[in-house]
Amino acid sequence: SLAGMALSVVVVLLLSMLYEAVKMGKAVLLRRALLALPHSLSQEALVEPEDGDTSPTQGRWFRYHVGQTLFHVVQVVLGYMVMLAVMSYNAWIFLGAITGSTLGYFV
After folding, report:
1. pLDDT class for 34, splitting at 50, 70, 90?
2. Is the predicted pLDDT of residue 95 greater than 90, yes or no?
3. Cβ burial 34-72 (10 Å sphere, 16+ → b, else e)
4. In the 8-state DSSP scheme, what is residue 59?
C-alpha cells in the first residue's frame, strides 16, 4: 500500500541518518581516545589506575576504546540493515537511503 511504502522510505531514511550519526560519534570518540593516551606507551602507563592512583588520563583510553567498539558494532548492524533495504531494488527505498545519508552527513 502507499502508506506502507511511505513508512518504509521514512524508516530507511532515519536508519541512514542514524548510521551517519554513529559514524561521526565514533570519530569523536577516536579523537578523545587519542587525547587520553599517555605520552609514554609503556605497559605500566596503559593499565587501569591503581586504587590510590588518581591520574585522570591513566586507563581512560580503554573506556574510549570500548565505546568505539560498541559504536562500531552498531554501525555495522545499521549498515547491513540499510544495505538489505536497498537490495530490495525499490527506487523509492534507494532514494530514501541516499537522502538519509546526505541529511545525516549534513547535520
Report:
1. confident
2. yes
3. eebeeeeeeeeeeeeeeeeeeeeebbbbeebeebbeebe
4. T
3-state secondary structure of 53: coil
pLDDT at 67: 86
Cell, residue 102: 546526505
Number of CB atoms found within 10 A of residue 80's CB? 10
Phi, psi of 90 (to 5 degrees): -105, 125
Count of residues making up the chain: 107
Q: Which three cell numbers stand for residue 9?
A: 522510505
Q: Please, what is the average pLDDT of the chain?
A: 84
